[in-house]
Known about the structure:
The structure holds 2 protein chains of 2 kinds. Helices cover 38% and strands 23% of the residues of chain A. In chain A, helix 3 crosses helix 5, helix 3 runs parallel beside helix 6 and helix 5 crosses helix 6. By secondary structure, chain A is of the alpha/beta class. Chain A folds into 2 domains: 182 residues, 3-Layer(aba) Sandwich (Rossmann fold); 79 residues, no CATH class. The mean pLDDT of chain A is 87. Chain A contains 11 helices and 10 strands. Chain B starts with a helix and ends with a helix. In chain B, helix 4 runs parallel beside helix 6, helix 5 runs antiparallel to helix 10 and helix 11 packs across helix 12. Chain B has 14 helices and 6 strands. Chains A and B meet through helix 2, helix 3, helix 4 and helix 5 of A and helix 7, helix 8, helix 9, helix 10 and helix 14 of B.
Amino acid sequence: xxxxxxxxxxxxxxxxxxxxxxxxxxxxxxxxxxxxxxxxxxxxxxxxxxxxxxxxxxxxxxxxxxxxxxxxxxxxxxxxxxxxxxxxxxxxxxxxxxxxxxxxxxxxxxxxxxxxxxxxxxxxxxxxxxxxxxxxxxxxxxxxxxxxxxxxxxxxxxxxxxxxxxxxxxxxxxxxxxxxxxxxxxxxxxxxxxxxxxxxxxxxxxxxxxxxxxxxxxxxxxxxxxxxxxxxxxxxxxxxxxxxxxxxxxxxxxxxxxxxxxxxxxxxxxxx
Amino acid sequence: xxxxxxxxxxxxxxxxxxxxxxxxxxxxxxxxxxxxxxxxxxxxxxxxxxxxxxxxxxxxxxxxxxxxxxxxxxxxxxxxxxxxxxxxxxxxxxxxxxxxxxxxxxxxxxxxxxxxxxxxxxxxxxxxxxxxxxxxxxxxxxxxxxxxxxxxxxxxxxxxxxxxxxxxxxxxxxxxxxxxxxxxxxxxxxxxxxxxxxxxxxxxxxxxxxxxxxxxxxxxxxxxxxxxxxxxxxxxxxxxxxxxxxxxxxxxxxxxxxxxxxxxxxxxxxxxxxxxxxxxxxxxxxxxxxxxxxxxxxxxxxxxxxxxxxxxxxxxxxxxxxxxxxxxxxxxxxxxxxxxxxxxxxxxxxxxxxxxxxxxxxxxxx
Lengths: 272, 366
C-alpha cells in the first residue's frame, strides 16, 4: 500500500472556463480544481468537450472566458504551449503523436529540451557544460524508458514500437519534462486487459513520485477503479464531480450515459 | 552482402579510421592538380562550383532536412551574399572593402534576410510555406533586376562586373602564385579556400545535427504540435533554422562573387533554388553524406553528359544524332526520375539504416 498523500493543496483551478468554435459552444462555465498528488479523472460521452478542455490546459487552444490558475500562477488569456510545459503541465495525445522517425531514446531526449539550456554555441564547441548536459539527458532518457517498461533496444525507431509501447513512450516523453501535472488523453484506448492493468500500475507509481495525474478515459470501469476524484462532462458542461462511488450513483451521470427511461405511450385497448 | 560490408565498416578500429582520414585528406589536397592534369582546368572550376553547391545544399538541408520547412526561395540568400560582396568590393559603388569584412557581412545580411522571411511564415506549413518562400525568392531577384533606376545600385540586368578578387593582404587569389616550388593557378587557390569553408559548414552541420537544437528541429519536422506540447519554443527554433540556413547561403554567395568576378540577377532564378532542393532531396534529406553525394552528382552529372554524350553517340551510332547540349538535360531529367522511383528516400537516406544495424547488434548482445 502506498502512503496516503496530502490532497489539500490545489494544483490547478479552473473557474468559469468557456470555449466556443464559431456558433458552437463546446465548453461552458467549467469550474474544477485538481489537488496536488491526486489522480483526477475526466469522463463523458463522445463530444462532451474533454479533449477541448485538455487543449486549453496545455495551451493549444485559448479559452474565451474564465480563469485558469496553475500552481498559484494565473495563465488565463493568451498562453503558449511551451510556457505551460515550462510551468509543469505535460500531456499525451489521444491519437499518439510521437516523433515517428526518431528513436525511442531521442523522443524522450526531446522531452528534456525545456529543462536544459545549451544552444548553438554549446552545440558547436561541445564545451564541458554541453557535454555534461548531453550525458545527463541520455542517462535520464534511458532511466525513464526503463521506468515505463520499454525493454526493446532504445535505438528502435518510435514508429517500429508496438502500440502499447508507443503509448508508454509518450508517457515517458511527457515525464521527461519534469511535470507537476501529467495529463493523459485516453491512455488505455485500444489496450487489452493486461496492458490496461500494467498501465494502472504505472499511473499509481507515477503518483507516488509526487506527480499529479489528470486522465481522460472512455473506459468508465478503469477510471472509477483508479481515480481519487472524477468529473463528468456532458455537452460542454460539468454535470457531476466527486469520488467514484458518488459518480456511479449520480442520476445525471446515468442519464448522460444511458439516457432517460423512455416514456411509452400507453394504449388503453392493449392495456385492458 | 552489403549489410556485412556496412557492419565491417562500422566496426573499423581507430587505426583504420585514421588511415581512411589521412587518405581522404591527401586525395582532397591533390585533387585540383590531379584533375587539371587528367581532365583540364575547366573541371577544376566545376569542382569549385560543386563545393559552392555543397555549402548551399547543406544550408538548405538545415531548413528542409532537419526542420522540415519547405523553402523554394533559398537561392535568394545566395543572391544576398553575392550582391553584398559585389556592391562593397567593386567599382560599382566605388567601395573596395577587404574580403574578410565583406564575406562575414554578407553571411550576416543573409541571416537577417532569413529572419525576415522566417518571421511572417511561422504559421505556414508545407505547400503554403513553399509558395510564400517561392515569392520571396522572386522578390529578391526582381529587386536586383530593377534597382538600377532611379539610382543605379545593382546595375540591373547587366549585373556587376570587375568584382575584386578575394585577397588576403597582398596575396590575391586572382593571380597565379608560386608556392613550395609548385604553381598554383587562381582556380586551385580558390579550391583550397572553398574546401576550407565547405569543411567548416560540414563540421557545423554535423555538430548541430547531434545536439539539443538539432533534436528540436527534427521534433518540429516530425510533429509540430507534439513539439510545442513538449515545451519547445517552436517560433524561436524555426527562426533559428531559417537564420542558420540563410547564413550558409550568404557565405556561399560571397565566395561565388569573389570567384566569378561578376554577378547578375540571372544566376539567382527559380531553377537554381530547385536545383539546390533537388540536391537535398535526391541525396537524402537530413543526412549530411547524402546531401554531399546529391550535390556532387547534380553538378558533375550534367557536365559529364555535356562532354560525354557526343563521343558516346559517335561510338554507338558512328555519328552525332542529337546535339549533346539538348540531350544532356533530357538524360539528366530521366536520371532524376529513375532515382526517385528507385529510391524515394534519396540515394543515401538519413541514418535510419545505421540505427537499425546498431539495434540489431544490441539485440544480438542481449
